[in-house]
Amino acid sequence: DTVIISAGYRIGPVEIEELQSTNEELETTNEELQSTVEELETTNEELHSTNEQLHAINSELENRTAELNDVNSFLESIISSFEGGVIVLDTDLNVRLWSDRVVQLWGLRSDEVEGGSFFGLDIGLPTEELAPAVRGCAKGIDSRCSLTVTATDRRGRTFECAISCVPLTGAEETVRGAILVVQPRTEFAWQDQD
After folding, report:
1. Is the pTM higher than 0.85?
2. Element housing 44 (H / E)
């Protein structure tokens, strides 16, 4: 029952069984490795597909960002072309936009006022006189209102100021706040304000 292998090695039945058992274990391990490789290939394909989708989404976001930047630049150029200052309020009467002309008048930068209550601002504009008209426009009750108030600029000088207010409307004419255009009737209000 002894098997002779070349070079004079002898292998008995016990060794043969051990070799067969080891061979079977190696075959099982090989099958498991092949299965794992197939699973990894599938996972790799899924990751590749997900990566392509993410690239497409990223490209779309970059395009949308560029479009938004263009729209913002366009709107900024329109607002800066107004002779008066522009203030945009949301329905809660918080400041959404504060133009450079308004900064010139009252010295508060847009980042200092945007998001805060218009009626909580400590500026030389008598907001309590404007409250009924502004609230009416912001709620869509009034379609337009104009009034003149006495205001004080950031240097303490008083001047007459014409205020026009219209509702800010969105899709389907939904009222989203109010737009105020502030126009000093005194020329000095724009002079030496930079």
Report:
1. no
2. helix 13-81
